[in-house]
Amino acid sequence: MPRYFEATTVFNFTWDQVARGFWQKYPNPNSKHVLTEDTVIREVRSGKLFSKRLIRKTNPSPKWAERFVTTKNVNIVEESIVDPINKTLVTYTRNLGYLKVMSVTEKVIYKESDEHPGKTVAIRSAWIDSQIKGFGRAICAFGYERFKKNCNKMVGGFNYVLANMFPPHTITSTAHNVVTTKSKLKDAAKSASELAKARAAPIYASLHPNQS
């Protein structure tokens, strides 16, 4: 029986930052299992960016699975759609090999968070299935737990990349510059006002000589 997995993650980065960082997820400390990454297709259609990448990973199997799997490497195809107008990034990922043993199809939607302005929410869904008679239920259960564990690693690795691309001090520095600029503008406006008053005083006095 297929297993369904769903999880929601909030990234403390804007959608634009997440969309930029998505293409630089690898390498990171949690992606040592990713061997190669190749872009097969990338084109713009109707203002949206469509991409397809082929990712090769190593995926060690438990002892009991050795009778079904003869290699530790597996090819993954990742298709994505970036919509810069509506600010959504949707990805579809699936394995290409050993589909009868276990197939994993994943969909992730990255979009601006309604509850957390300035942050990005990722809604992840995955379907895990196996066609091995007599072992299907056990394999799906194993796949579900492994996928759940790997999700935490994926989020941690992506956060690592984003934090290095967009360090906190950049935001702090920008905020400081804004405050400093506002203060300078206020000081300049005040000085200009005082100067205008000083220059206007003699003129006003000459026009109204009888007023003290």
Automatic annotation (TrEMBL):
Domain PRELI/MSF1 intervals: 2-170
Any one GO cellular component localisation term in the record: mitochondrial intermembrane space
Name of the protein described by the UniProt record: PRELI/MSF1 domain-containing protein
